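Lay summary

Proteins are chains of building blocks that fold into shapes. Our project writes down both the chain and a compact code for its shape. Here are two examples, one after the other.
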Amino acid sequence: MQQVNPPEPAFSNLDSMLSRKFGKEVANYFSGSPLNRVSFLRTDHSFLAAALKHHSASFLLFKNLNPLAKDPTKLEFVSYQDVHPLIGDDPYSKSEEELVAEYNSDVTIPQLLFLGLDEGNREGLRYKIYTGSPYFALDVTPKGTIAARAESLVQEMESRGLQFLSGRMQTSLPVTDAAIYAQARALLDWNARNPFCAQCGQPTLSINGGTKRTCPPKDMASLVTTIGGDVGAKPNERPDCATRKGISNLSFPRTDPTVIMAVVSSDGRRVLVGRQKRWPPYWYSTLAGFVEPAESVEEAVRREVWEESGVRLGRVVIHSTQPWPYPANLMIGAIAQCVPDGETIELQHDPELEDARWASLDEVREALIVGTSPLGEPAQEGYKEGNLRLPPNTAIANQLLAAVVGGFLGEPSKM
């Protein structure tokens, strides 16, 4: 399958002091969304109701986190009329306060997300000073009290010759589709993983257009609490919960920062690459790992590289970032350089890597031309068996390696 190029960065042709000093911004796959998220309108149910029923509104359906599509290269968006049998006339007819007060955990509410407005369509919804086509995402996985209606909608979509794309990763989509998909998948996954309050264990309710979960003080289902037995005289009263006081990160989506780095030798002539045991033969990539609490990005880069390879680093420079919706990572791409006496590879610390080695710039350069592909797929024409294999250009690792062999270290004007 033909590889997809990363998106163009915002204002790529704009001349500015920053671009002259640091070079052109780099955008990575899963970024570059055409949508304005207008996050401040997520609590405005008058806006959401108008957006929901507008003729320009588009809905992306997911079943078990798999998006609806024509084929692996094209998502399929449906209309309000298509989803009406599942979501009803207007899920935003009541305010958030009313929905919280009437919460009943025995009733399954379809997980609906407001993603944003495509302001490129000037014939879209007009609301106050904002204009654009609304985009939503909807989980149609059959479950709970909506199982029958959800299954009916799934069957209707499949009868049209559409499919819910299987597989853990989708990297064949056009860049705008990929960015919309990434936002929707990450939020649906977070909602699905957090049906219960982390503080008190009671069921939670999705609000703010699907971008926040709240722990209601009452439940019309009269559940038994997980803290201390029956709730007593008022069976719908829940125990006190810390998440209802002030701002709590228990109620908001999480994004896990992850560092990924192209490590250059002290003389600038080689690049460190590593491989995991499960990867196909000759397939290598840059090293990566999670940022830990109370750790800077630069510290995380140095720690992860030493733990995985034994190599010790000096200067670390941030290159670009990539949202990665599997499930909710922000890949922080960096380029780092070894200290002169720190290039010895030692794998005895962290057993994550099967192998790590130094590759010459020429070897990396050739691999970027003929040796890239998603895991398990063949390389391009001209690849010689046994040579280095690298990730495709939809991966930030590819961008980092391309920057190194493209002169990143040799041009002071490009950070």
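And here is the second example, written the same way.
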Amino acid sequence: MATDGETIIAFDLYGTLLSTESIAKELAKQFGQGKAAFLAATWRKYQLEYTWRLNSMNQYIPFSTITQRSLKHTLSENCIAGSEAATSSLMSAYDSLSTFPDVPPALEHLTKIPSITPVVFSNGTQEMVGNSVQHSPDLSPYSKVFKDIITVEEVQKFKPHPDVYDHLAKKVGKSREQMRDMWLVSGNPFDVVGAKAVGMKACWVDRGGSGWSDELIEGEAGRPDLVVKELDEVVDGVRRVQCGG
């Protein structure tokens, strides 16, 4: 896909381009405003936990199924009876999550930089991610920015398993040795650490300004190469790192 001189930047979808917290709007319609933010955070917690448990057990369930089951887990744990209609509505809403406010101008900026090859790289199924990129009211206007949509579905592993990053490299035409010149951009620390573990460069989007606190891997190997507060800072930051700045 990429040609000589181009820089591959792989953008995570959920929690980076799309706000998983924005599902709270739909949760509020179903279960009330007072519980919505808490339910959204808990749903996301179990969604990710399920992927990590499946990796550990060497098993795979599509992310769409995981998303539905983690919703049911969340509702059951909080003694909330969720109807099939409510579940179906929430799953449909997951295809139309809102972007973070800094995403549209950053993607618009990318259209003017031919030396960057942006791709989406996600735990989601091809159908889920395709729906979000092509049909989400917030994200679909920028669908042509991305040169490819790459998901873990073919590998049947989830981030941060090393196989998924190897799969990303193959899909963009890079060897394992060339992964050191590829970039991951993610708001999820576990994703950043996973990319670093296979030799990729990684940018962490720290919108909350809380600073890096993940201590799983000591030293620079466990830290992002670049930290930004907004997505529009990524391109200039990548250039600085590439130039040794």
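What can we say about the second shape? The beta strands are 7-11, 116-122, 149-151, 183-186, 201-205, 226-228.
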